[in-house]
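Late entry, written up from scratch paper. The run itself happened at the end of the previous shift, but nothing got recorded in the book at the time, so transcribing now.
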Amino acid sequence: MEANNSQRVISEAIRKIALGHSHDRVAMSPSGTGGVGTARMIHGYVAKVHDDPADSEFEEYGGTIDVGEFPDETASTETIIHKGILLAGLKDNSGGFLVIPTLFSDVTIVSDSATKHSYVVNVSHADFIQLHSHKETIVGVVETEELDPDGNDSPDYNELEPTGNEATTKYTAENILTSVKNKDNKEVTISMDAETITHTVDKSEVTQTTDKIVQKVNSTTIVIADKKVTLGDENATEPLVLGNELAQLMLDFITECSKIMTPTLMGTMPAINAPMFPSLASKIQKFLSKTSYTK
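Output as recorded:
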């Protein structure tokens, strides 16, 4: 009998060392849940991220992390490392929601004593976040009026009125739509699919496709396509003028005009306004833009 008692004492001591402070939580669990199947919550830090195929442990632990248990969570004097903690439902982390924590960041894991599997449930810092759905994903913020915690008649959080300020991005397999609105009914949208990107700000819109970029402000349009730019309207047909060519033409024209001679009773004489031509020629360069160019 004494031998059995001694074995129970030793067994209980080992159990307390292994469970640490979790021993008290297990002991307080409702009847029937304190043994096999009990989920234990463990607080610790990321001791290793198994993401290197060249590492000797990758074949066994690839796609998982190792977690070192904080000293105040265990009565053991040795550092306890929990190996092969799963980050998602699948070990290869394909699809679904996935967070890969930063090395040495704080984590909380849950260990299922029935299956011996452990999962990450909380992280303090992340290196990678994945949200991969089959149909649609929406990420956003919708601002509401402030909750009055002291008012007996104050609405609950789900009943608070929106202020009108919100920003959302909706992802589908074919399209991404980002929208930002404010309480003054102003809105900016960005729509994107495999062939088109459209930015819309009130009466201004920019659309980019595989073969051109179209920018509109009300009815004024600028279009950029391969070897062609149109201003004012997408169907504009009037060509732009080459500034340097026009300037040289005007200089040549004024020079020739300055050579005009007129027969008079006193003989052949230059035009009365001939002194004005050099002055006009000096002004030609002033109408050439210093910031805008064409070809």
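Residues 243-287 form one domain.
(Scratch paper discarded after transcription.)
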